Amino acid sequence: MLSTQRSDDDDQYMLVACLDNVRNVSTILKAIHFKDTATVFASPMGLKITVEDAKCVQANAFIQEAIFHHYVIKEEQLAFKINLTVLLECLTIFGSSSMPSGNTSLKMCYAGYGCPLILMLEEEGVLTDCNIKTLEPDDVLDFDFCSSNVINKIIMKSECLKEVFSELDVTSDILQILMSPDHPYLQFSTFGNAGSTHSSFPKDSEMVESFQCSQTQTNRYKISLLKPSVKALALSTRISIRTDDRGFLSLQYMIQTEDGQICFVEYYCSPDEEVDHNEES
Amino acid sequence: MKFRGKIMDPNCIHHFSNVVNTISKLVKTCIMRITEDKVFFILSERVNDGGAQIWCELPQSHFFDEFAMEGVSAESNEIYLEVAPDLLVRSLRTAHSAKWVKVKLTKKNFPCLTIEVDLPSGSVHQRLVIHDIPVSVVARKHWPDFTEPEMPRFDVSIAMPQMRLLKNVVDKMKNLSNYVSLSANNSGEMKVSVETDMASISTHFQNLFNPSWNKDNTQTQAPMSQDRDPQEFATSRVDIRRFAQFLNSQQVNPDRVICNVVHHRMLHFFLLHDDVSLQYFLPVVSR
């Protein structure tokens, strides 16, 4: 049973969200934890947590309201900035996920602008209360990525990419992604101290679920910005890779929680400015 | 000065190793005091270093099949040695399948605690492994620095909750703060909390046992006289790394670990396992 807070007390909060297994939230958040601060957006659809770096990369984690067994919000949108590192320490206060001996339940409450985020976690009759300061939300980047500008789109099983991304040559500053209706179809390249590495996937590979490429595009992205996405990739079952007419990259990851629910994480990245996009490979 | 002891029971070897292991997780060096009846491991830290104290007592007859000692003098029939428990741990690590273990005070070029381990080697032969651990002999004039600390007049006495959850929680809290507050009351409640500019986190345990103590400091089952409001909490704020170290040092689950809280002064942990008693005095961190 959850903590003793009666539902009357919940009236003071703009947002109350409860779930039985806190790992369904903490795991997703770990996939975007590459900076200390995050902006949290809450709406009747659920939570979106955004982390950005260098004005070039943005990660969003979507935790839809169906993940919670109780979700009540009194506003169309609530937004606050919070220290994601502290938030994750609190969510995993009873121990990190590797030893799931019991379920830890979570109740999250937010009373509105200027108020702290309150977390109540319970495991085996032991309660932890956390009170985390919230800050003024910053404006988040709008990558202006819309489907009508998408030039190339590939949906794949994550399995095969996990190896590619975890073995990326870190002596290479950039990751080059080629997407094309023609051979080599999909190719990841790095250019490091020991030489260049290319990993390709033919469009008829059984790993590829959907292949919609209209134009050959070669784009380069700073590896340091994309490295954090490896966490999301590792958790995911499927990934969608899209590039638009500006060479902006959208990576969308479908992640299954421990309890079988689906959540999404997406990464947006702008191309490395020093290079022209749409180069021939 | 002489000391010679032999442990022959594998369970005793194992238990002795566990005790030394626990001590090694708490301190880098400590005093090993040997008397006719007991072996003690003592820490008495200077106030500037934190002022923590450890008092661990082992009845020698519980471990040693043979035990002989001759102290500094007839009136002061004791030996005080300064030793690094980690070195003891390492030499005892070879002893888990030993037939016997001997512990001796010897003089090589400097005083040593020599650990001799008799190990089986093949089906017939035996192999003798000898470790010489350098120690320093503590002079008689310093012995008063290492007397048994008095059991403090505590405000609340409570049994610690299950270690697994508490350890996990404190390990996480360690990432957020250097200090942790432990509060307890006579209604079986304990709170462990940290507070920083960014967040405050508090973990609550309930239904814990409040032991009663007789005047002679033995525990009793009889309820304590309640001139203290049972809901009222006594609190001490201590160094979190020390507290986490103590929690992580628990090798075997002792029957019970008692925590005595002296409000705003110190935490006193007391555990008893199979005749071996360990006390850990952790003073508050001054603001």
TrEMBL record, chain A:
The keyword DNA damage applies. Signal peptide: none annotated. GO terms for cellular component: checkpoint clamp complex. It comes from the Eukaryota. GO terms for biological process: DNA damage checkpoint signaling; DNA repair. It is found in: Nucleus. It holds the Pfam family Rad1. Keywords: DNA damage, DNA repair, Nucleus. InterPro entries: Cell_cycle_checkpoint_Rad1 (IPR003011), DNA_clamp_sf (IPR046938), Rad1_Rec1_Rad17 (IPR003021). Gene3D superfamilies: 3.70.10.10. Belongs to the rad1 family. Component of the 9-1-1 cell-cycle checkpoint response complex that plays a major role in DNA repair. The 9-1-1 complex is recruited to DNA lesion upon damage by the RAD17-replication factor C (RFC) clamp loader complex. Acts then as a sliding clamp platform on DNA for several proteins involved in long-patch base excision repair (LP-BER). Component of the toroidal 9-1-1 (RAD9-RAD1-HUS1) complex, composed of RAD9A, RAD1 and HUS1. The 9-1-1 complex associates with LIG1, POLB, FEN1, RAD17, HDAC1, RPA1 and RPA2. The 9-1-1 complex associates with the RAD17-RFC complex. RAD1 interacts with POLB, FEN1, HUS1, HUS1B, RAD9A and RAD9B. Interacts with DNAJC7. Interacts with RHNO1; interaction is direct. This is Cell cycle checkpoint protein RAD1.
UniProtKB/TrEMBL annotation, chain B:
One of its GO terms (cellular component) is site of double-strand break. It holds the Pfam family Hus1. This is Checkpoint protein. InterPro entries: DNA_clamp_sf (IPR046938), HUS1 (IPR016580), HUS1/Mec3 (IPR007150). It is found in: Nucleus. The lineage of its organism: Eukaryota, Metazoa, Spiralia, Lophotrochozoa, Mollusca. Keywords: Nucleus. Belongs to the HUS1 family. GO terms for biological process: double-strand break repair via homologous recombination; meiotic DNA integrity checkpoint signaling; mitotic DNA replication checkpoint signaling; mitotic intra-S DNA damage checkpoint signaling; nucleotide-excision repair; telomere maintenance.
